[in-house]
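Morning!

This is the sequence you dropped in the shared folder:
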Amino acid sequence: MRRRQNPFLNNEDDIDPVASVANLFDVAMVFAVALMIAFVTRFNMQEFFSDEDFTIVKNPGKEQMEIITKKGKEITKYKPSENQDKKESGNKGKKIGTAYQLESGEVIYIED
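The structure's back. Tokens below.
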């Protein structure tokens, strides 16, 4: 007596359940790159990818002020110290004025 084989049990085109994980990784990488590009264009940070040197002052004149400088490929970030008004710290500085850059590129310094 001959047995009939079930065509559903011996299907050569079985789908590998792990194969879809590779596709999810590809989608995640594309999403991450698109998100980075969106952030760079939204916050006007294209300067970080150019060869030009620049200086950015965030929150000028406030306690949370930060100065970000790029020279070549090196990016440095300066923050004011927590105790800059105290006299006992000899190596700390204090604010003595404000500098403004006009649209023409000219810098004006005003003492406080």
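Headline: The helical segments are 19-42.

More detail when I'm at my desk.
O.
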